[in-house]
Amino acid sequence: GAGVSQSPRYKVAKRGQDVALRCDPISGHVSLFWYQQALGQGPEFLTYFQNEAQLDKSGLPSDRFFAERPEGSVSTLKIQRTQQEDSAVYLCASSLVAYSGANVLTFGAGSRLTVL
Amino acid sequence: GDSVTQMEGPVTLSEEAFLTINCTYTATGYPSLFWYVQYPGEGLQLLLKATKADDKGSNKGFEATYRKETTSFHLEKGSVQVSDSAVYFCALSDSNTGNQFYFGTGTSLTVIP
Q: Reduced to 3 states, what is the DSSP secondary structure of residue B84?
């Protein structure tokens, strides 16, 4: 597609429910990032994929968070047993090349998760 | 560790006013520096970047110069327009510290006619 597509755009979950957020990166993009953006804050790194390999998951806040990119294109961020502190906008970004420090990221519009 | 500190908002300016949004950084290596902009309801978009000291990034009338001596990357525009109203994020990327970008907290800009 022309850009990074994320779904759903909005998700309301009851505390304790599992949620899955989807990211369709730009076709052919090697690198894929997930970020968490709390209200009034900048994006915080969660995890990074190069093709299907998850090379860095140091930003995942707990073992309730899991991400995958099994075929090196679409990625899913799963949050188990959601808590209120998980409420945030989850951003996906992709880049054409493998991470090099000077990469330009293309971001999706985000998935806004609200946990009641 | 690496971090970015940017000027807190919100900032409100009249059309055609001069804009400065301050950004300073801390990095262990030699980072690349970026400004991203987020318009209402949209994803973050790259505004400009600089990859080494003394580089100047520019786009749509915005400029920022990578100053290693002051560890700064301040965003400037000589004459803002209503359409520049958005949230601006300063960011750094340092391949020495892993596969991540570090973002500031964002500065909300509103330009009034």
A: helix
Q: Is A62 on the interface with B (CB under 8 A)?
A: no
Q: Confirm or reject contact between B42 and chain A (CB < 8 A).
A: yes
Could you tell me where the beta strands, DSSP code E, fall in B1-113?
3-6, 11-14, 19-21, 23-26, 32-38, 45-50, 56-59, 62-65, 75-77, 86-93, 101-103, 107-112
Contact assessment for residue A83 and residue A65, using Cβ atoms and an 8 Å cutoff? no
CB B93 within 8 A of CB A102: yes
Would you call A45 and B102 a contact, using CB atoms and an 8 Å cutoff?
A: yes
Distance, in Å, from the CA atom of A13 to the CA atom of A102, rounded to the nearest integer, reads: 37
Residue-wise pLDDT tens digits, A71-95: 999 999 999 999 999 999 999 999 9
pLDDT (0 to 100) of residue B94: 79
Number of Cβ atoms within 10 Å of the Cβ of A84: 9
